Amino acid sequence: MKALEQTEIQLGYVPLLDCIALLWAQHQGYFIEQGLNVSLVKEASWASLRDRLAFGFLDAAHCLSAMLPAAALGDDQLGIPLQTPLVLSTNKAFISLSQQLCHELNIGLHDCVEQTATKVVDAFKNGQTLQLAHVFKHSIHHYSLREWLALVDYEVAAQYPFCTLPPPYMVEAISKQMIDGFCVGEPWNTQAELEGYSQIITSSQEIIPSVADKVLAVTAAWAEQHPQSLAALKAAIVQAQNHLRDLEDFSEVWQLLKDYQIVRFNCSTHVHVKACYKIQNIIQNLVPIEVNPQQADFEWLVTQNCKWQQLDISQTLQQEIARQCIL
């Protein structure tokens, strides 16, 4: 076994269900087994995480997949290349609207995705101000919102003035009527719904393909300088992913999510039972068996970036940018 170039690792994450493999690897001692001393670093927002990863304050991070092609394109104002050896989650975000807005627009639980989009677009065209939020400009959450509205009206989708909020702040923002809806990963949709502020109206899976959402990301320079340390980091997280996929007793996982203040509501097999099993199912299906990044996913992400940013880039260059994102 080759020596690790670096054993002290600063590993960043944003509080969401799909950082669980990092937490579980730490909890189960998988990092230590690989010879790594990992410090988990909670970041307040995706912008903070991106900047701290790019400038070396973090060695690796739980990262939005769309950040990688944006960095390769130089569309993130930094232009520091990021790469990934591992997918942490595929497309499992949700769109939630305030219960007040659902009532006003007569949006029901059985409305299809086109019907909900039609009601929101019609309200917008009629001059109603609807503040919708996503988590970051370069994210499947942003693209899901635009593609959702584009099912009805491409021009509205292209021009819609979305705002950006960190995932954990979505619940507070909708509770204070600062926003009317959002697209975010779990558990924040479920928490807002259980607290009575919002209603989940559709999933990103009904709008966009099943592409990588979060990945383990490092800078290209760090990957080149620390190949053995990166391989050890990946191995520990993959071990955690495999364990979580087959786990039957989730009591330790629930406690871990509560300890890290990711799940902030009471949820078990006897209270909020539906939410309990929904979250457990999401965790066990965050990634398919194949956890290596797929070029097709990153080609789609590049295409989305170009589409909504109105960037004119050849297909050959788009494919090359996608390839550069993958280790």
TrEMBL record:
Q: Which SUPFAM superfamilies match?
A: Periplasmic binding protein-like II (SSF53850)
The protein's organism comes out as: Acinetobacter piscicola
Protein name, UniProt field: ABC transporter substrate-binding protein
Query: What keywords tag this UniProt record?
Result: Cell inner membrane, Cell membrane, Membrane, Transport
Q: How is this protein annotated for GO cellular component?
A: endomembrane system
The yes or no answer to whether the keyword Membrane is present is: yes
The record's annotation in InterPro entries points to: NrtA/CpmA_ABC-bd_dom (IPR044527)
* TM helices/strands, residue ranges: none
Which Pfam family, an example, fits this chain?
A: NMT1_2
Where does the source fall among the domains of life? Bacteria
* Gene3D superfamilies in alphabetical order: Periplasmic binding protein-like II
Compartments (UniProt record): Endomembrane system
On whether Cell membrane is a keyword of this UniProt record, the answer is yes
